[in-house]
Amino acid sequence: MANTIYGVFGASGFGREVMPLLRTYVEKNDPQAECVFVDDQPPSDSLNGCRCLTLDAFVEHDAVSKKITLAIANSVIREALTKRCTEAGIQFIDVRADNIVQLDAVEIGVGAILCPFVTLTSNIHIGQQFHANIYSYVAHDCVIGDYVTLAPSAKCNGNVVIEDHAYIGTGAILKQGKPGEPLVIGKGAVVGMGAVVTKSVPAGVTVVGNPAKPLVR
Fold this sequence. Notes:
Elements: E1 4-9, H1 13-29, E2 34-38, E3 46-47, E4 50-53, H2 55-60, E5 65-70, H3 75-87, E6 91-92, E7 95-96, E8 101-102, E9 106-108, E10 113-114, E11 119-120, E12 124-126, E13 131-132, E14 137-138, E15 143-144, E16 149-150, E17 155-156, E18 160-162, E19 167-168, E20 173-174, E21 183-185, E22 190-191, E23 196-197, E24 206-208, E25 213-214
């Protein structure tokens, strides 16, 4: 029996990218532990050399300690899973690539996933269950809420506020705000792939283009 079992919730594409980062951490810090994929509908019994378990099976595992990271892009599902895991007594673990850059006075809530080549500069506050995908960055004096996702190469410049559940698409650029007058991405807003955001985005709105404008369906 392993004293600790580590899980990546999500056996889809992003989860398979996160697992090698978690395995690297475990091999260095807890080499007797097992890493597994956790999914409500596992695609198979094993994937990329790791067992696949349902969340119920993970909860019932006889390991002394159970730790998990939530590699699920949908922030609403991520929040629901946070509640389920917390109620089951499962601990959250941050997953960080070895080559991320993190400078001064950066505060990050539990459950963050920081993929390769992510940069977090100075004086940044980030909430829980944050995802920063490859090559994304957050510059100085930014405040980021809970369950926020930065897709690959998303660029969040200084003095920006990103509220809970916002999604910043691949290659999007958020213009730098001003001290006391930050650029704000509202709760649940979506910034489309490659968008250049020069003005604040209201809650729940999807913006696309350069300069970014509300999506007309």
